[in-house]
Amino acid sequence: MKKAVVLTSGGLDSTTCLALAIEQGFEPISLSFNYGQRHAIELDAAARIAQHYGVQTHLVADVGLFRAIGQSALTDDIDVPQADSIEHIGSDIPVTYVPARNLVFLSMAVGVAETQSASAIFIGVNALDYSGYPDCRPEFIDAFQRAAVTATKWGVDGEALTIETPLIHMTKAEIIQEGLRLRAPYHLTHSCYAPTRTGLSCGRCDSCLLRLKGFTDAGATDPIGYEVL
Prior knowledge:
Elements lengths: L2 E5 L4 H12 L3 E8 L6 H12 L4 E6 L2 H5 L31 H15 L4 E3 L15 H14 L1 H4 L5 E3 L7 H10 L24 H12 L12
Parallel strand pairs: 1-2, 1-4, 2-3, 4-5
């Protein structure tokens, strides 16, 4: 069976990507990252989802550098922005942006793919209903694809390694509808940047607001719990 490395954060998008990779006939290698994120509860969600799908190889990579350099609300002592509605989300790159995160994550995924003979890497980036991160845009993915071919023995030897972004041009509602079609275990997912001590999602950070709007637009009910609705 062909193999694919699937970047799995425990969130809605990456879970949909995992379901799509499996539907397409790939044997998934689940790759999560402990990068000092304050919402490390997402790693528990990623492990539960991998177990749900019976993934044979679930890897967690430690990337302590992001915590050391900080400068992001996800890794530093900076308040996570919260709002009462999605209309109040700013248009600038938010402080939840983690500098070079996807660049580093994809680089590590390439190493895993090359050593495990995987022909594809799935990442759930999205350029429509997202928070404005520059490393979620098609331009970045295209540039990284070229770099991956140039930088690896596989690429030099002419082997194919593709970066798959099946959600990149989908709205959050369309992503959710696709996940529901695939019976993705959304009840096991976690998306919140500022969860409570008991694990409830805050309902007011960018990630929560985008997720909630997506479910509303999809005509579906979000199965996870929120502190504020």
